[in-house]
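User: Show me a protein chain along with its predicted structure.
Assistant: Here is one chain, sequence first, then structure tokens.
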Amino acid sequence: MAVIASELPPTQAPQVRNQPPQPPTHYPPQPLPLPPHLDPAIRATRLDVINAGSSCLIHLPSNHVRKNVYPERLDESFIDSLELESRIYQRLPKKHPRLLEMISYSRDEGLILEYMPEGDLGSYIRGEEPRTRSCLLFALGSTIYEIMTGKEPYLELKDDEVTALFEEKKFPSVVQLPCGDVMMKCWLSEVHSAEEVRALIEAKLQDCKAEVSNV
């Protein structure tokens, strides 16, 4: 009578040697990547952004403008196009009253250009108001609001409705929000620089630390 392997005692069962380990058939679910507008690492690169195009972001870190490729889309063709733009600027006359001046360029830092306070040419032709410092500080107030609440001001309304409310100086309630008075100062043009906003926020942090230490 034939004996099959499953009927043999464990000590007599055939041994398979040098068998490579089998990969697991089930893998634990992997977390989905955050969308770019929610990724903290990407949001950190947007703090000084004043405009954007199809391939590049426009930053205003100081008195110059920095134009660089989206950090989450480092496409070589976009980087090459930006480098080509820098070579064009190098061929243009320097200190020309009607030409934008390039300050520097590198593949890592991007294109550093002279800041033009009257805005970009397209907006000027369309008769749009330039993004002044007060506009940027207004946007900073909205950014702080979004950080504290997780949503944009009046997210449930249409853009034209939000604009109408802002023009009437009707803003979301910030009474119960941390740094609510700082947001309101930005919206009402009661601050004059981002440095002033930072100082206000730091002062509030110090007050909070003092309150905690006294508990």
